[in-house]
Amino acid sequence: MWFRHDGQEMSDEDWQSPITQSLAMMLAGKDSHDIDERGRPLHDDNLLLLLNASTMDLEFAVPAFDQVWELLVHTADDGAGERIDPGGVTRLIARPLKLFRCAA
Length: 104
Description:
This protein is mainly β. It is built from 1 helix and 8 strands; from the N terminus they run βαβββββββ. It has one domain: Golgi alpha-mannosidase II (Immunoglobulin-like, Sandwich). A hairpin with an 8-residue loop joins strand 5 (69-74) and strand 6 (83-84).
């Protein structure tokens, strides 16, 4: 799923807009219906990637799924630690990205 920095799903207009310079992508590993070559279900962590290519700092609203997110990577701060509740907000300075994993 793809989201704007305000937490709303990306629309066709968002994808075509020349001013769109940020987005969030959620990868649903726990809810995947994929199977391996033996027919076993493939499950992994749910991940949330936040990208800010703009020159402005942005507040990212995390989609309001029933999940707490734990920061794995922040390209502007190797030592950063952060947890965000469902529907919470995180600040992302200009240019970096943050990668979160579902903490539950």
